[in-house]
């Protein structure tokens, strides 16, 4: 398996592999507009995209809302790439935010929707990341969590850092969320929609 982590952090995605974030396989399994429609993202929703990467979800989310999409990533390289794609798409309502999921530099109860796509398995401890998501969301706000099922697959992170969907569901429920939808878009992926109680 191709290593996809770097910067001394054993679980963090390596920006050198950013090409895989927009692969045909990913678009087939997780078509961004259809995936966002499952929440859904509405015209008055403020969105926070955690681990936004190159804007796979940030850019389509920005087309669905008139409010701000806060695209959060720890990597300046990723944010620079996202800025280029944002400019090329003529999108004006994305704010680039450098920060970690464990400590997001945004205000409490800012968001109607938080997106955490293929990133929560990188967070240590997981509970801290979920608490940050809970802090960011308004009451009744929704989290779209997409992550790798704890099974072997040719793509994705090593098996030992994956978080099984039942464990992710339990972790979310223990931190004040209710799971409102579950989906298996591909054999090694799962999506959860969770509402802040």
Characteristic terms for this protein:
single chain, 197 residues, alpha/beta, Rossmann fold, seven-stranded mixed β-sheet, 6 helices, globular, disordered N terminus
Explain what the structure shows.
- The chain is α/β, with parallel strands linked by helices.
- It has a single domain, classed as Rossmann fold (3-Layer(aba) Sandwich).
- Helices cover 27% and strands 26% of the residues.
- The chain contains six helices and seven strands.
- A seven-stranded mixed β-sheet has the order 3-2-1-4-5-7-6, with helices on both faces.
- Helix 5 links the parallel strand 4 (111-117) and strand 5.
- The longest helix is centred in the middle third of the chain and has 14 residues, at 76-89.
- It is globular.
Please give a quick description of this structure.
The protein has 197 residues and is of the alpha/beta class. It has helices spanning 24-29, 32-37, 58-64, 76-89, 126-136, 165-174, and strands at residues 47-50, 69-73, 94-98, 111-117, 137-148, 177-186, 189-196.
Q: What average pLDDT do the residues reach?
A: 89
Helix count equals: 6
- The N- to C-terminal Cα distance equals 39 Å
Provide the CATH top-level class. Answer: Alpha Beta
Assign the CATH architecture. 3-Layer(aba) Sandwich
The helical percent reads: 25-40%
Q: Would you report the number of β strands?
A: 7
Q: Could you tell me the strand content as a percent range? A: 25-35%
Major sheet details: 7 strands, mixed
CATH superfamily: Vaccinia Virus protein VP39
The low-confidence runs, each spanning 5 or more residues with pLDDT under 50, are 1-13
Total count of domains: 1
